[in-house]
Give the backbone structure.
Amino acid sequence: MNRHLRFTAELFRNSAYAVLIVFATTFVLLLIGRNEIGEGVIALAYLVPVIWSGYRWGQGPGMSAALAAALSFDFLFIPPFYTFTVGNLEGWLVLAIFLAVAVLLIGRFEANLAKARETTFMYELSSVLASTRTQDAVAHTAARYIQRLFQAALVNVIYQPSSQSPRVVVSEPHDGNGEGRPDCLLPILNAWGLIGEVQIWRGEFGKLPSEDSRLLQNFASQIAKALERTQPIENREPANGFASKSSAV
């Protein structure tokens, strides 16, 4: 799942930490002496803070560390020294390979972390939904978790307890603003048919996966099972009227 960087105080703080770690690595390398170790060893040494920053703090700090490491590497360890000019082909190749490897590793870390976050999120959502006792609690829990994961501008979870009852709309955040049609619309289906839907409006800093993605389909399935489990026995009948009323809210 592609995600845009959200520029927050935490991002800038972690990026500053990542750059400081690169500077500390540079200090150690200067103490050892550039004449004692080759450019290849120096490049490998600089990968350590880059990899650590990407693993510990994510893509933004990792890229900050990679940029700081590349500039320090060029300025201090690639002839001519104390200039950002690269004087020979070998220097260009070493610098280019270093940047390519750093960016590739950070991208891999980010992809793996995204999968881990999604897996953790699904486990948390399933656990919380399993402990809910009412349909209203199911809807509020699902809306809150989905909004948090995607940093959505607005999430509506709409369900109809029975064919005789009106639709219930649960929104998260309560003061959210969804303009126009939803960017993502997930039907909630169970054995009786369509019982509701999830409407998601994309936030400023997030990107939604496609509606047929495995992640969103799992969300809809978990919500449908929880709503069916918590439905009062006297209302357990198909909500046939929902499909004709499910216009965008």
In short: The first strand starts at residue 154 and ends at 159. Residues 89-130 form the longest helix (42 residues).
